[in-house]
Design a protein that fits this description.
The longest helix has 15 residues. The protein is built from 14 helices and no strands. The chain folds into 2 domains: about 90 residues, Endonuclease Iii, domain 2, CATH 1.10.1670.40; about 110 residues, Endonuclease III, domain 1 (Orthogonal Bundle), CATH 1.10.340. It is globular and about 55 Å long. By secondary structure, it is mostly helical. Helices cover about 50% and strands about 0% of the residues.
Amino acid sequence: MINEPPIFPFDLSAATAHLSFVDDCLAALIRELRPFEAEMDATQNPYEALLEAIAYQSISGKAAATIFARIKALSSSGGIPTPEEILKLRKSALRKAGLSGAKILAMKDLARKTLSGVVPSHDESLKLTDEELVQRLVSVRGIGVWTVEMFLIFRLARPDVLPVDDLGVKKGWSVTYGKKHMPRPKELLAFGERWRPYRTVASWYMWRAFERAGYAATNKILPPKPKRKLKLRRKTRAQRPKSSKPSPRQSPFSPNPL
């Protein structure tokens, strides 16, 4: 059986051709590394994807998988609990499954906002722009912009997402462009303008560059350079020019004398 290439909601060949044309360093990555791929699970709606994301926050993947399996065991179907089931489950049962108090509150808020329509269905999410999805989903307790960006990339395969706060993307950028420091989010956002409208693909290659470099190299990358602060020194009376004193008819805040 021949494995068919994955189907994306955008032209991948056009994306890699554009990125190779506008960025020589990225062109090298595209030639040397494996082709872009992103998971698209049409069976998992935003509620289910975000419920899983909450379970996986701030702990190892292995521990999170164990906890999420316990949560699914609490459902009558043995699958991901519905919003109604999450709201009915007692905090003690969810704590016993391994969830922290903050994650329990986040899951229950997600369930409520799914039932109220704030969190869209899968079909509805396909009709919303990236900005609209971010605005709606970050209203859920415990869900930040980064989590929504990962949903946009790895569930919906949106073509133009640049997660400027992602450590792997930032360090991959530093490796790719030979920088000793990670970029500040605004710096990376400005740099990424050349990658539009395929910033997702560029970000994916930044992750791959980070992986290829390995931790021994990427651990040496320094935090972003601190912003330079301008020091304003007060002039002493002796340093002030005699002409600095305004005449009776001249306002000290006026650029032009009367």
